[in-house]
Here is the input.
Amino acid sequence: MFKKNPSIKEDEVRRPGELSPKGTCLLALFLILGLAAAGTGIAETLKVERPNMQLYQAPNFASPVLLPVPVGAEVTVLSRSGDWLQVSYQGKTGYMHQTAFPQTPPPAVGLPGLLTGGPVRETRSDEVALAGKGFTPEVEAAYRQKNPGLNYAQVDLIESFRVDDRQLAAFIKEGGLTP
Here is the structure.
């Protein structure tokens, strides 16, 4: 019926729309690169929601302070490491503790999370610390409801105290404390 063309090898013959092995590899590579770029191309911006926050030079509270960051300021998150976020603010790059952002969303679910499922709900470190002391936001609300006559202004006053960064560093050094 049909004559074979001797110049065409059988392994070079493909159905219409079928990719060559080289084409399949290229398509897979483009898909992988596209997924990787999609996860890294979006800069996350967070708003500071706690007073008296600082931008630190290194991810610990004893590190030199680069500058104060007021409530309502927006910072660009560059990376996350444990409870610390490396951020950019007013042209400076430094670190802020995640407690500055009480509503910090969990990191975006990456490819492994899409395949295996992500966590139902992330627990914030301040919640863990309070729970370790038995004092969760729910417990606090119930306590306030049962004790409406207590003076919470004293707590607010204590929270408003500011300590000079040099004095704090000297105190930590003199006391042999490890941040």
